[in-house]
Amino acid sequence: MPSQLYRRVISAVAVAAVAALSLSSCAGSDPAAQGDGEIVWAIEGANLSAGKMDPQTSQLDVTAMVQRAVLDSLVFQEADGSFSPWLAESWDVEDGGASYLFRLRTDVTFHDGTPFDAAAVKANFDRIVDPDTASAQAASMLGGDLYAGTDVVDEHTVRVRFSEPYSPFLQAASTALLGFYSPQVLETKADQLAAGGPDVTVGTGPFELTEYTPDQDIVYTRNDDYTWGPDGTGKPSFKTLRVDILPEASVRVGALSSGQADVVTNLPPNLVEQVPADDTVESIAYPGLPYSLFLNEKYGVFADQKVRQAFTRAIDVDTAVQQIFFGQYPRAWSILGATTPGYDASLENSRPFDPSAANALLDEAGWTGRDADGIRTKDGQRLTARWIAWTPVPDDRAALANAVQSDLKAVGFDLQREVLEPGAYNEQYGPKTYDVTDWGFSGVDADLLRSHLATDGFQNASQVSDPTLDELLAQGASTTDQAARDDVYAQVQQWNAEHAAIVPLYSPTLISAVRPDVSGLTFDLYGRPLFATATVG
């Protein structure tokens, strides 16, 4: 990667860091001044105000991260991957995984006083699968077309049914995406859940959402009645969790350094060295799909597999990732991250940077001409692709994009990048009128690949349609034996390595920093902080 690219990244960070020194708008976090104590949590959160406050409909990680404080789940996933009781005291897996019977706690109430019961589970799951809800990720995690219904067996017993065994369900049921809103809210304010707010975002969680100023802050207040947390967790020891929305990472670090924030998340690797020495840095690798480029094979030049394969070999991923992310993020070799069950380690080092191979593949594909700019041509057409990206784009990913464009240009491939506001992005993403787009997607279960690669997958940005692959993905969802599932997902990963629908670049980690006056903070398997067990002071 050109050295001037690296210097531009540092320069942008330095300017933002100076701006952080003048930060004065964040709420203070002096426990004594707050009575029962307050923790201020600084997050990126830039897109929450765009109707992304509802985990049942939003696909953003940040939505599930902040609303975990409000929305409890049927089960809790422990650090070793096992499941323990939460809102469900116990459960049975029936019919080889085609049915799940949950026995619910009898002492749980929502923040509005409504009892939590089997009818509440049914109301929430019915809402998720209702086409009018326009849920995508949550509906997929609830089994998609495999979901056959939720039955109220009695007041505190509920059965969730699928048309065939669906092994990822317990993991899905442990997430905030399948967490529970008050049935009263679902009856009267369901259309307001995407915007969120007090008396709208009403769950059973350890905190109640009491204030929300879009693009500024969210205030969660302790639920004094909370006694039903996982592993015996009761009500939090502090009263207020204030979430400050600070899109600029350097500003979040400035808030931490000045004592105006107690916890910050989503720190880029190049700012870790700016965290005060007595603070604790937690870096937890995301399981799931690494940050990747999705090549649209039904639109433009990527219809040709040789062009897709050349694209993957032309990028010096190792150098770019190492230099831009300061060695904090590993280069990704597969469409599953290394911490995800089912990861195929045999793919490591299988397709290294090789511009000679890229050039040969492009020659074979007929792109043998060159124009005045050195860009390849065929039949009078330039070898051009258009990459659409969702704003805001962090400095490090912008630098990575520059490196990718530079490497591709060296083999005569012109990659044009457009950074778009959400509305403009969706105008192109919906009808799939782009060549490339990008994201990473966290998830503990490899079934997440179904939504990205199945013909009818709601995140199938590459527009893949392969009956053999569809069958593999269906097998992965229905098979309960983990070794058999691992074999299925190894085949899926190897298919993508050859087909080149998705180009994995790096596996991010969720980097958080915590001030020394906060103790007992825990993290879920995605690296997201869980505040119910924390203390401050």
Automatic annotation (TrEMBL):
Domain Solute-binding protein family: 83-446
Signal sequence, renumbered to the chain: 1-27
Domain of life per record: Bacteria
An annotated Gene Ontology molecular function: peptide transmembrane transporter activity
GO biological process terms on file: peptide transport
Alphabetized InterPro entries for the sequence: Peptide/Ni-bd (IPR030678), SBP_5 (IPR039424), SBP_5_dom (IPR000914)
Stored SUPFAM superfamilies: Periplasmic binding protein-like II (SSF53850)
Keywords: Signal, Transport
Compartments, record wording: Cell envelope
Gene Ontology cellular component annotations, sorted alphabetically: ATP-binding cassette (ABC) transporter complex; cell envelope; periplasmic space
Family classification: Belongs to the bacterial solute-binding protein 5 family.
UniProt protein name: Peptide ABC transporter substrate-binding protein
Native source organism of the sequence: Microbacterium testaceum
Lineage, uppermost ranks: Bacteria, Bacillati, Actinomycetota, Actinomycetes, Micrococcales
